[in-house]
Amino acid sequence: MTTAHPETEPAPPADTASPEATPAAGATENSASAEATETAETAEAGETAEARETPEAPDPAATSETSAAPETAEATRSAGATETPDAAETGKAGVRPGAAEAAEATEVPGVVGARPRGVRARVAHWRDWRSRHARAARVVWWTATVASAVLVLGALLLPNRLFALHTSQFLRLPGEAIIGAALVLALPRRPRVALAALAGTVLGAVTILNVLDMQFVEYLGRDFNVVLDWTLLSDAQSYVADTLGGVVAVAASIGLALLVVLVLFVMAAATVRLSNLLVRDTRRATRGTLIAGTAWITCSVLGLQIAGGPIASDRVAGTIASEAGRVRDTLKDEAEFGKVARSDTFGATPAAQLLPDLRGKDVVFTFIESYGRSAIEDAGMAPGVDETLATRTAALAKAGFSAKSGWLTSATYGGSSWLGHSTTLSGLWVDTQQRYRTVMASDHLSLTKAFQKSGAWDTVGIMPGVQKGWPEAKFYGLDKVYNAFEMGYQGPKFSWSTMPDQYALEAFQRLEHGRAGRDKPLMSEIILTSSHQPWAPIPKMVGWDDLGDGSVFKGIEAAGQKASDVIADSAKSKAEYGKSIQYSVTALTEWLERYGTEDTVLVFLGDHQPISRVSGNNASRDVPVSIVAKDPKVLDKISSWNWTDGLRPAHDAPVWKMSSFRDRFLTAYGSTAHPSKG
């Protein structure tokens, strides 16, 4: 009795079986044929051929017995078979004997063209198609091979900076590829495939990290932190939703997730394919690996370069080492910063000794979004902004106000405005999300909370950018906070910004600053958002008496530029950014000119520089800061600071770290230091 192959269904009865399914000889011959077939298949899998492995995906051109002969001879010797595996596999029709029977036996009865089941049947089906369409198969094979090589080499040499994306960057010799080739040639089949797949996955992950670094440097001026920055991706989604719409944000999120999975899978498949190609001719591959390794070592020792960079590249190894170091430093910093946040120079200062020289004054701390040094000194933006600052300085002087200005170096760049706010007001260097959470959960005395602690001021926050719960109000010592939905605005959003700065300031005047019957002076924290990227559309100033509920801005918003037309264009972004700063400064100083009194003190500053597409790749992190008041005694208190008169700080005006502002301000206005230690 003939026994069916374990991966096929039983053969049909003899009277109905096809000629191909009928034994050509007796049981002995059939048994010998089956044994030879199994031996050939074992040789194909590489399980018994340690000296030389046969290719899993041979060149499609090898469809004839003649072209396959050189390769099959060695496989035959390794397998110990009496017939070459390739000859047994291909036969005259290019299909392994028995493959057709397996495919036919596993086809669904009555279904024309049903695809065969089982691994061997699928391989036979593919080889049959390849033999019938040799030219197309050759194109597919070469396309997949070249694409795999390009992907792997590109990932090995990919920089993590957008400005470094040049052709010369990819003309280097990656040391990781040489080491990988040596390992592949030394390992048997299964460990080799596993290692290649793992290496490809790691290479895909490094590629993703490099792209994240590019975007973070572009938007935040720093590399992506694998420990802390995942939460910022949800903020990025919210920004896209507010800027380009919810549908675009959802589509972008889904597309990004699919792209990540695709990168990891494709990179793993590419490295496995290249490893299979290497072992097809171990002699040549070994020789090539030795030559490449010698060339890499020579270039490294001699320091040979191309286009200013080393020919001998180890980018992936360097990236992995850098990420590991960053993780280690992040975890160490978290523990150390917690101790710093618990100690405070003014933490134990009695209420009566806090800010005695500002008692009776209405003090307004205002942050202008993305108001950086580049707005004042960049040749493309400075003319318009400087003219606005000069005009507004003159207008304030006419109204009786004087101003002094300097520079602060922000803890953030391009975004994450809350880091700039918290650094300024806490007196601590808050440059990461983890530090921010640590500070917000601490009892550290913020500058604004010092006013509340003194008992001499009512405190309020005007937060048009806040659209959900904001527990930070406790840290900042704010008795009352007005978010985007509590100021009565009924006009249109201006991209990310929920309302124009002019309206937010008028709402502040109506709700708090101009409210009759106040029994205490007011300390206010105001965040202005009209200069937030993408800087389109930008509001225009309207008559203060015409603001109403903000509906007057509908026509202005509709006539403005679309965010999608500006967001990816560097020239347009720079031009519109400059206009947005002019608008924000004008709105704020007009409010002061219109509503300020002898007892009004305005402190305003930028929270960070705009993104590098606007400020440039080598821009500083400096932002302007100004103090404006009618009472000359207020500015006399900071005369030792050597700040510049007016709203525009001189190029050589003093530059301080943003974290030093709290202590300098408290000291200048009479506060007595009483340190506390946690």
TrEMBL record:
<keyword id="KW-1133">Transmembrane helix</keyword>
<protein>
    <recommendedName>
        <fullName>CDP-alcohol phosphatidyltransferase</fullName>
    </recommendedName>
</protein>
<feature type="transmembrane region" description="Helical">
    <location>
        <begin position="244"/>
        <end position="269"/>
    </location>
</feature>
<feature type="transmembrane region" description="Helical">
    <location>
        <begin position="290"/>
        <end position="312"/>
    </location>
</feature>
<feature type="transmembrane region" description="Helical">
    <location>
        <begin position="139"/>
        <end position="158"/>
    </location>
</feature>
<feature type="compositionally biased region" description="Low complexity">
    <location>
        <begin position="59"/>
        <end position="79"/>
    </location>
</feature>
<dbReference type="InterPro" id="IPR017850">
    <property type="entry name" value="Alkaline_phosphatase_core_sf"/>
</dbReference>
<feature type="transmembrane region" description="Helical">
    <location>
        <begin position="170"/>
        <end position="187"/>
    </location>
</feature>
<keyword id="KW-0812">Transmembrane</keyword>
<feature type="compositionally biased region" description="Low complexity">
    <location>
        <begin position="14"/>
        <end position="48"/>
    </location>
</feature>
<feature type="region of interest" description="Disordered">
    <location>
        <begin position="1"/>
        <end position="109"/>
    </location>
</feature>
<feature type="transmembrane region" description="Helical">
    <location>
        <begin position="194"/>
        <end position="212"/>
    </location>
</feature>
<keyword id="KW-0472">Membrane</keyword>
